[in-house]
Amino acid sequence: xxxxxxxxxxxxxxxxxxxxxxxxxxxxxxxxxxxxxxxxxxxxxxxxxxxxxxxxxxxxxxxxxxxxxxxxxxxxxxxxxxxxxxxxxxxxxxxxxxx
Length: 99
Description:
By secondary structure, this protein is mostly beta strands. Helices cover 7% and strands 44% of the residues. The protein has one helix at 45-51; strands at 11-21, 28-33, 36-41, 63-70, 78-86, 89-92.
């Protein structure tokens, strides 16, 4: 999985959660953004836990902002999250990456 499929540019998106699948190899959160579904890859369970991003925070209907990198394929609505912001609080999934 890694980062090879993602663009180098920083990307930010805000939307409401419509679906959540957490687990290995990484979790996925689907966001509704202006009527379009975007899939956001969040971390592995241990990475989410380390960042404080608990399953209870990722409930359907919640508005979240994701900072990370989108797919290098323009037509693909897929984002790899580096940081998630919920109710003004940041959950940094990759503190070792430069942002």
